[in-house]
Amino acid sequence: MLSFAETLRSAAASIRGHGLRSGLTALGLVVGVASVIAVVAIVQGLSHRIKEGFAGLGANSLTVKSYTRFEDKLQGRENRIGTADLDELVLRLDGVRDVSPVLPVFGPFGAEVRLAGKTAHTRVFATTPVYQYTRQNFPAQGRFITEADEKHRRRVAVVGAKLLDDLDATAAPIGKFVEIGGEWFKIVGVMEERGELFGISQDDFVLMPFATGLALLPDQVEPDIGITFNVEDVEKLDEVRDRATTLLRRKHGIKAGRENDFKVETAEQLTDSFASLFDTVTFVFAAIVGISMLVGGIGVMNMMLVSVTERTREIGIRKALGAKKRDILAQFLIEAVLLTTIGGAIGIGVGYALGYGAAQLIPSFPPAVLPWWATVAAFGFSAGVGIAFGIAPAARAAALDPMAALRNE
Fold it and tell me: Which UniProt keywords apply (predicted)?
């Protein structure tokens, strides 16, 4: 009986002896693995950037936002979190600090901004001085909104670096006046740059005092605000979340058993939601692209069947010298697995290179990220293809009658 090392050496020698045929056979598997790895690397790169974005909220933060079912939206209904909800949380929720409302003043699509003859379109939010602490984002130039700005409803603005770049106003922006939605504001600060997410700049915005933003809303428009706050004791995070949920359900008159018209989420939950979504997308795309790996497996089976036919006399000689069925089975099965794992290894390298290159070619796209589990899965699947498509040819070789094999020319 041959040792495993000798069987492996024999398999490698057989693959080298038919280099061109082996290479063409492995090519199908290389293409399949490379396609899957490229898709996984690109999608996981997006997921990694999302997680980095939410990491800035901190482990002790909670976010409250309105929630409307899709069926209700179709009927024109829209739930909201208003200033009364904010007051309820500030007055009655213990164990929290840095309560920061965020109001999209001109709706989700923002407003036109003008400065010195230049025009840009950007998102416009109204918030309070503690926003910088809940979001861990601070001014790089000038100052942030102050309590005095809030109290007196001052027309001051803190802007993102991308907006200044669009307005050609990066040189000495502090103190300049900018027109936002037809109203004039004085720039008092420029926030730290945070890069891009999904190709969308996180530095393209305007912040103004919350009271000022409320005053700009038409009388008939009911505000819909998001509220972020920090929990003083992180170990009581779930307890505070439950109390906030109870307060808002009572405030909204939601009866027992009815679904909430709002969400209270931790930064970890927000991250996990996006991570789960991207993992699902990764799996679906990988499964679709992975079909091509089956084509590679069929090619392996075809090559191994040809190899068995060509080596019939060799098999007869080995059996005549005492080789057992399991020895012949192991020899051909190891050869198939070795071929597919080599193809898988090459495919992993090519796939990551393709994913990295594609991410670099797309403007503002996050770099590709290849998780360890994808590499392990690709190796495992490649070996599985070798076993699944190599077992039939190996079994056929093991079942050959030695006398008939010896008579074969």
Answer: Cell membrane, Membrane, Transmembrane, Transmembrane helix
